[in-house]
Design a protein that fits this description.
Immunoglobulin-like, single chain, 21% strand, 367 residues, binds calcium ion, five-stranded antiparallel beta sheet, alpha+beta
């Protein structure tokens, strides 16, 4: 078992060196909102306040990060208004969970420069309804001037997250059943709904059936420095959800096996074990290589057995035996470094090359 160790270590070092330049990929899903149908008015989220950070696309965000218990300003833009123009505009925002912070006057939430009058539904919100609509028109009565404005039209202050987690905010469009939804009003009395991007269950609109929405914004509520690590792989949730693999991103915060940080010796402690949140050559890659050829007594573990075993440090002097934290299986997921749960054997292709593919990946929280 030990004879091939030197060769293995050398191949690992070579593989790791070759792979360093290849790990800085960009999240494919971070490409902005899907295209809207040609010719339709589009109502969508845009340029939120700095209380939201790390948005995939500032002008057209689909995913952002937020700090719990912080109020953010969400802005809505209107693109591609109808050619004959419009005289009224209503936006409905579904924000459950979240705490909406209404301004004193509904007009204070309207950025549309041609607005002359504004109203809100509910008229006196507590901020806990989970839903709010604001309507603006170009005059309080006929004749109504026609607007062709395209750009930012509304903004809302919302405390999105009472605690760490993920929330989805959406813009339900007006339907026969949801007259309070988002729409444009033209001067011939026709209500035009903005282009529908998705359908979504919005309990405040319809607790049973998904409703059409013009846009959604997903907000992951974690501070940069949050240490919350739901799956125990030593990568904080916030880093697993972000876009850069070398910084821990493109991972699943509920999947333990996507971060290959194994038990290694703390500096100056020849018998202790730690997982220090980075994948290093001497600690992690050599640590797996030292266990090359080891197999689990009792055969391959179930994933829950593997997880229970992985979270317990090896015996103080056990550097060569089987241990589930050093074990993965193929084939890879969306990325070559993203492998399956333990298969009971530490081998070259899945395990030693697997950990080498994550060389340099760093889940130390941001400061
Ligand atoms: Ca984690
Ligand atoms: Ca994970
Ligand atoms: Ca490590
Ligand atoms: Ca394996």
């Amino acid at each position: 078992m030990k004879l091939p160790l030197l060769a293995v270590s050398l191949s690992v070092a070579l593989a790791a060196a070759l792979l360093v330049a290849n790990t800085d990929t960009v999240r494919p899903a971070y490409a902005g909102s899907p295209a809207y149908p040609e010719g339709s008015a589009q109502l969508s989220f845009t340029s939120p306040s700095s209380a939201l950070y790390g948005c995939d696309d500032v002008d057209d965000p689909t995913v952002c990060f937020g700090v719990p218990s912080t109020t953010a300003t969400l802005r809505l833009k209107l693109d591609n208004p109808p050619a004959p123009g419009y005289i009224g505009l209503q936006a409905q925002l579904a924000y459950d969970p979240g705490v909406y912070k209404p301004t004193a006057l509904p007009a204070d939430e309207v950025l549309w420069p041609d607005s002359a009058t504004a109203s809100r539904q509910p008229a006196f919100p507590t901020g806990l309804e989970g839903i709010v609509s604001v309507r603006a028109r170009t005059a309080s009565g006929a004749p109504f001037p026609v607007s062709n404005f395209a750009g930012n039209v509304f903004e809302f202050d919302i405390n999105l997250c009472a605690s760490e987690g993920t929330v989805v905010i959406s813009l339900p469009v007006a339907t026969a059943a949801n007259g309070a939804g988002s729409f444009l009003e033209t001067d011939d009395g026709v209500f035009e709904t903005p282009a529908v991007q998705d359908t979504l269950l919005v309990p405040a609109v319809d607790p049973v059936n998904p409703v059409p929405v013009a846009d959604t914004l997903t907000v992951h509520c974690y501070a940069h420095y949050s240490q919350t690590d739901t799956d125990g792989d030593r990568c904080p949730n916030v880093k697993e959800l972000m876009g850069s693999p070398p910084q821990g991103g493109l991972r699943d915060p509920e999947y333990h096996w996507d971060f290959y940080d194994v038990w290694t010796r703390p500096l100056g402690d020849p018998t202790g074990w730690e997982r220090e949140r980075t994948v290093s050559l001497l600690g992690d890659i050599f640590g797996v290589a030292y266990r090359f050829g080891a197999s689990r007594a009792g055969g391959p573990p179930s994933e829950s057995e593997a997880l229970a075993e992985a979270l317990v440090a090896p015996a103080p002097n056990d550097t060569t035996g089987y241990h589930a934290e050093y074990d993965r299986s193929g084939p890879p997921g969306d990325y070559a470094w993203d492998l399956g749960p333990p298969d009971g054997t530490i081998d070259l292709l899945n395990d030693i090359f697997g950990v080498a593919l994550q060389f340099g990946h760093d889940c130390t929280p941001f400061v």
